[in-house]
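Dear Dr. H.,

I hope your travels went smoothly. While you were away I took the liberty of generating a structure for the chain from your last submission, since the lab meeting agenda had it listed for discussion. I wanted you to have the full record in hand beforehand rather than looking at slides cold. The sequence, exactly as received, is reproduced here:
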Amino acid sequence: MEKNTPFALAIHGGAGTITRDSLSAEMDLEYRAMLRQALNIGYEILKAGGTSLAAVEAAVVVLEDCPLFNAGHGSVFNKRGLHEMDAAIMDGRQLAAGAVAGVQNVRNPIQLASQVLHHSDHVFLSHAGAEEFARSRGLTFEPDEYFFSQHRYEQWQMLRDSDVFMLDHTQEKKFGTVGAVSVDKQGDLAAATSTGGMTNKNYNRIGDSPVIGAGTYANNRTCAVSCTGHGEYFIRHVVAYDVSCLIEYKGMTLREAAELVVNQKLKNHGGEGGLIAVSPKGEVAMPFNSEGMYRACWVEGQEPLVGIYND
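The corresponding predicted structure, in token form, is as follows:
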């Protein structure tokens, strides 16, 4: 039975030092166009009666295929000059989840996370084992050249002979994770997140994106959340699950819980970034404590919103 609450979708493409001065007019338009494209793809699935799981996966695939974002095609270089990608997806109905970390050459890591959710007895696979599973499921692999971009290569060249890592595009802080959250016509929630991690990252570093409860979480009773920011802080503070807990145990609204976690709990400990979240009632929250966050949302019956800066 369909509920009378609106369906909704929100997406993000990363947060950080994103100001009007840091983006040209051309780049501003390009980012907005890609956010709108991903939003449209997911929204049309929901409008046609599709599931939240299908909508968030499809929206994230669009962002992974775009070189503007640090996920999939646009992933940054690690210490060895390779691309290690993480992703997770979660179904709010049964708290089912699939996650992968450190995968190389998989065109769309979010599709691999979805395969883990639907076709394995596990939640979290990593590195060579995750890639072997991807091959067994017939997923598309791409050569190293597919993931190469001159801009990302130049970032890495600045750092490759040092022990410094970079959070994304420039020496200013930018966190290039992508993600989507949704509630469908049946009232079911889902969340998905994908990232290429940090430039020059070493030792098979894994951030919060694929960690259920830290960077990704969905529960039909409370909310669906996808995070973007300095992953170590989001892991320590179990950010996505904390938003859910404040709703479940403290009776907070979605926006109250999301604002408290991002602009008080995280900020007070030096954690920078933001999140997108949606409730079973179709409410959307997109707080961030950085100067900007690539974001968009569309609630049934309302106009779609696309934003970049903190205004």
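Two observations you may find useful: The longest strand covers residues 8-16. The chain has one domain: 8-302.

With kind regards,
E. W.
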